[in-house]
Write a structure and sequence with these properties.
By secondary structure, this protein is of the alpha+beta class. The protein is built from 6 helices and 11 strands.
Length: about 180
């Protein structure tokens, strides 16, 4: 029980948040995110995921440092795929930390001035159609929309983690007594 209470972390990494979304595209491509505390994006603070099954939804998950205030989502490199336009469907953009999640509304994203190559965003139910033109389409999610630090401070709920550990201790004791 002491081991469970003191050392078990339930596979959580308190230093990272998870950014995830579901994407469907009419072209194969590489999708990349950049992250930084101040919005100075470099390759060493980025992650790339390949999309290879055209017209099939794929879950994209990126684990980034919780200190990141700015996130830039790059929507592929059209010059690699041979055409200067691309259509995407994105749904369920969210950040997660300590088992809690916050959805990010793409309509808020549309109002950000720091974007490139996005020629249109249209909402269809829970999906957002994004039309892209050009080589380096991206959008930067600013602290005004993400509010990552606020979200992290709201989710630092040690009580629910302690409760989970106590339940696990009780289950371990019951299993030991039944042997």
């Amino acid at each position: 029980n002491i081991y469970i209470l003191k050392y078990l972390k339930f596979f959580r990494n308190d230093n990272e948040i998870k950014l995830s979304y579901i994407l469907k595209s009419d072209k194969e491509d590489s999708f990349q995110i950049f992250y930084d505390e101040n919005g100075n994006f470099t390759e060493d603070k980025s992650q790339t995921i390949e999309y290879r099954k055209v017209y099939r939804p794929q879950i994209f998950e990126y684990f980034i440092p919780k200190e990141s205030n700015f996130i830039r989502i790059d929507f592929g490199n059209i010059s690699k795929v041979g055409n200067n336009t691309k259509k995407l469907e994105i749904e369920k953009i969210k950040i997660e930390y300590n088992g809690k999640e916050k959805k990010i509304d793409i309509l808020d994203i549309q109002s950000i001035s720091n974007k490139n190559g996005i020629i249109g965003i249209e909402k269809k139910g829970d999906l957002y159609d994004i039309k892209i033109e050009g080589d380096d389409a991206f959008i930067v999610l600013s602290p005004k929309i993400l509010k990552i630090q606020e979200f992290i401070s709201e989710t630092k709920d040690g009580i629910h983690i302690l409760f989970e550990k106590i339940i696990l201790c009780l289950l371990a004791n019951i299993i030991i007594l039944m042997m």
